[in-house]
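Residues determine shape. Take a concrete instance:
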Amino acid sequence: MKAVGYFASLPITDTASLQDLTIPDPTPRARDLLVRVAAIAVNPVDTKIRARRAAVGDLPEIIGWDAVGIVEAVGADVTLFKTGDRVYYAGELTRPGANSELHAIDERLAALAPTTLQDADAAALPLTAITAWEMLFDRLGVAKGGGEGQALLIVGGAGGVGSILTQLARQLTKLRVIATSSRPETVQWCLDLGAHAVIDHRQPFVAQLGEHGLDGVEYVAALTHTGEHFTQIVESLHPQGHVCVIDDPATLDVVPLKTKSIALHWELMYTRSLFQTADMGEQGRLLGEVAAMIDAGQLRTTAGEHLGSINATNLRRAHALLESGKAVGKLTLAGFE
């Protein structure tokens, strides 16, 4: 089958950093779906893994953790899906990724794709939707329908996670949602997705929150450049507030959290699959809820730019754009040439 992968961790400017390859078809495990991939999306984790994890031996590294496609075969123990189903999912870090024509995925991590979205628009959702959902409800502990009189600050509102987190918070809670952004087009993006207000992450947070009638917030979703913004985040949080981090700051001084008794949470959507937790199926279940909300018109895709068919050239473009920090929403590709 066709695939895009690499053998050595290289700068994205090197044509060998992502290559068009032909590799054997995967063999599904007992609870696996064998999916013919129709579209993919690209996430910051793709660029991080490419930079840190080289291939082992003669086998190439295949990455990619957002996909939509049609189930071609099912493992012996599969009960949730059948051949012909159109599914979407974000995959597992410890298995080959979805940048290939065929992909094997544990059925507990997948859901039927939204029927109202084209393949690329559906592929934009799984990883960020799972991350945002787990962050909001499992880590920060906000209750569905809760948050009356409280506020959520989303640092990095125009990225993939921020884009779906804003929508989930507006649709499923009563939180006041404040996003950070700095460019006119990204400010408008955040407002269009439902943010009550947008502040500039290059300027002091507390003063800007005050301009919107807030003396602080109860919750912060720290999605990007957390180390750079951490002092501002601590200042912005009310006593006994909560901050959840998803990026990878080199260091993080948590001592300033003590005075306010601020709770620090980490979110990694791969934790369930990495440790094969008993509740792994929660990811498939929540993706099913997201699909239903999409089809009901309550949520919209966070696809930002479609970069064409799935090949090494286009994937290198996607990685370069993500590494530049200028991507808005999700980057998608569809169909193998």
